[in-house]
Write a structure and sequence with these properties.
126 residues; mainly alpha; elongated
Length: 126
């Protein structure tokens, strides 16, 4: 596999801009890495916060006299996906929903920019 093709594959599949490291453009690779990690940090913090709140709500609804009974948990399992979906829609996260959407779009743009940038740099090598 050619170096440029491998770099393009790594940027598309492994991590945005990962191909820059393969092509020897470490500064560009580090910029993509830093921006991507910052965006992912915010998105993961929001996700973990919501997951923790959903779990707390579920456990609180199943507790009786401070004890969690297995049969109560088994009874709610069929409706659990619907309950989680509804709570994801209604629970506030750490950040406003429009921020999370914007960060998700930024992550997609960074990924595409990494692929295009590695493609352009790879073409210069051949």
């Amino acid at each position: 596999m050619k170096k440029a093709t491998r770099a393009l594959f790594f940027s598309a599949v492994v991590f945005p801009g990962a191909g820059f490291f393969i092509l020897g453009h470490k500064r560009q690779g580090y910029w993509f890495l830093a921006v991507t990690l910052c965006v992912l940090l915010f998105l993961m913090a929001d996700t973990v916060y919501k997951a923790q709140k959903i779990t707390e709500n579920l456990i609180a609804s199943l507790m009786r006299n401070g004890i969690l009974y297995l049969e109560d948990l088994l009874a709610v399992l069929p409706s659990l996906p619907h309950t989680i979906r509804e709570q994801l829609k209604t629970l506030p996260g750490l950040f406003p929903a429009n921020w999370v959407l914007s960060l998700t779009i930024v992550l997609g743009v960074i990924w595409v920019a990494g692929i295009v940038g590695v493609y352009i740099q790879g073409k210069k090598l051949t």
